[in-house]
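Most newcomers find our protein records easier to grasp once they have seen one. Sequence and backbone structure share a record, each on its own labelled line. To make this concrete, we reproduce a full record directly below:
***
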Amino acid sequence: MTPQLLVSDFAGTTFRDDGAVIAAYQSALTRFDLPFTDAELTERRGASKLAVVTEFAARKHPESEVDAVAREALEAFQAALIDAYESGPVAEVDGAEAAIRQLQELGCQVALTTGFPRPLVDLLLDRLGWTELFALTLSGDDVDASRPAPFMIYRAMLDLNVPDVRQVAVIGDTPLDLQAGMNAGAGWVIGVLSGAHGIETLGITRHTHIVPSVACLPELFAAD
């Protein structure tokens, strides 16, 4: 059975991330002397980037300064990523576009969700040639709280007129993606091994399926 709506993560799920996100975090946080560890950055993959830098800014600065410091750190993070993605290679996860188009032919709408700020989303969609691929794209800027809150999933359902969350599939490469899907009550909550985390991490996070990549979805839904 094919779901009525697939809500897909971006980096690590449909778009290949070869370390640029972590490198941009490291650059921005170090520039503002905000304390962090690489393990913490990995744990927060999939979250709103503003929420992440705000959390780290709060460790060092008084409450009255946190928002301003976080906004500056986010701008530095975004500038580093834009530089990397404008000048470096940009590629899909193998088979992602073909799988998405196959699902669309079967009547499944596909919404793209991401913790990236909107300017980065637009840049990457343009470089990938995906500006018209998705029925809807949502960033962390579009909701009050990003993953693991289910609000981007619910926003996609509202905007695309899908009333039954049991007919929604959620897919992503991080525990936060899976937690958001479970919090939403989605019918399918699917982890992929093409991105930030392996089976040892995704396997212990609540889910319905784990697959190698988004390219496996048409076969998975046919089997279900």
